[in-house]
Amino acid sequence: MVIFVDVYEGKAKKVIPLDDGKAILEFKDDATAFNGEKKGRFRGKGWLNAQISAHLFRVLEENGIKTHFIGVAGDNRLIVERLKMYPLEVVVRNVVAGSLKKRLPLTEGTELPEPIVELYYKDDSLGDPMINQYHAKVLGISEIELKEMESIALRVNEILRKYFKEKGIILVDFKLEFGKNSRGEIVLGDEISPDTCRFWDAETKESLDKDVFRFDRGDLLSAYERLYERITGDSRS
After folding, report:
1. Contact assessment for residue 35 and residue 124, using Cβ atoms and an 8 Å cutoff
2. What is the dihedral of CA 54, 60, 62, 64, to 10 degrees?
3. For residue 87, what are the contacts with CB-CB under 8 A and spacing of at least 6?
4. Could you give the residue ranges of the DSSP H alpha helices within 38-142?
5. C-alpha angle 34/39/44, rounded to 5°?
6. SS3 of residue 133 by DSSP
7. pTM
8. How far from the centroid of its chain's Cα atoms is residue 61's Cα?
9. Any alpha helices (H) in the chain, and if so which ranges?
């Protein structure tokens, strides 16, 4: 018998822990931007994010990256390994976009000579502020742990950047979250979806991610569906 314990609900997902060291990751149809100031609901978004995340986790697993992904548990649900999550967002940037263009004197769309890795402290009440390795140490995260997360993040970038290039898509930037499993291993968790990444069409530079919703650039579902079809070869129609 499977026992459900406390449910943790965020803006776009629910985490439903089970009693066997696993959890259900349920993707909602809700969309938020600007720290929750802008909100919307798009029927089918949860399905798309779940399926895209599952597909990309499989790509990473096939290339030697340990993730919490176990399998698909329904249209908008994944089964994952339960992790003790670090309160960090690890962001990798390949192209100038988003907040980076406010911090560097570079034009949006400029390709960086090498990837930039940034750390953000996960706390909605503080606005998820950017931090450095010294702040992380104060939070109890060791230098060894940080270096391992950075190393994994750069390897993920290497794998996915090549993968998306073959699909005619630019991986502009993306957010990763990590946790420790019951064996003490640092493992990639959370999701990899258009909610947490920036994807541009290589020819048109059109957004295929949540920026469509953030900046009213078109229909969010259409953008997510196009990304899904490009990477999986499947059509929802």
Report:
1. yes
2. -140
3. 121, 122, 123, 139
4. 45-62, 100-103, 133-138
5. 120
6. helix
7. 0.94
8. 15
9. 45-62, 100-103, 133-138, 143-166, 211-214, 220-232
Fold classified for 8-81: Phosphorylase Kinase; domain 1 (3.30.200)
Average pLDDT for residues 143-154, to the nearest whole number? 98
Q: What is the mean pLDDT of the chain?
A: 94
Domain residue extents for the chain: 8-81, 85-219
Distance CA 228, CA 47 (A): 11
Closest CA to 192 of 43, 54, 92: 54
Counting DSSP H helices and E strands in the chain, the numbers are: 6, 15
CATH 3.30.470.20 describes domain 85-219: yes
Residue that has been written with the tokens 């579902």 in this structure: 221
Could you tell me which residue, 132 or 9, shows the higher pLDDT?
Answer: 132
Same-fold call for 8-81 versus 85-219: no
Which residues does residue 223 pair with via DSSP β-bridges, in sequence order?
none
Q: State residue 2's pLDDT score.
A: 34
Which residues are bridge partners to 179 per DSSP?
Answer: 85, 187
Q: Cα–Cα distance between 62 and 30 in angstroms, integer?
A: 30
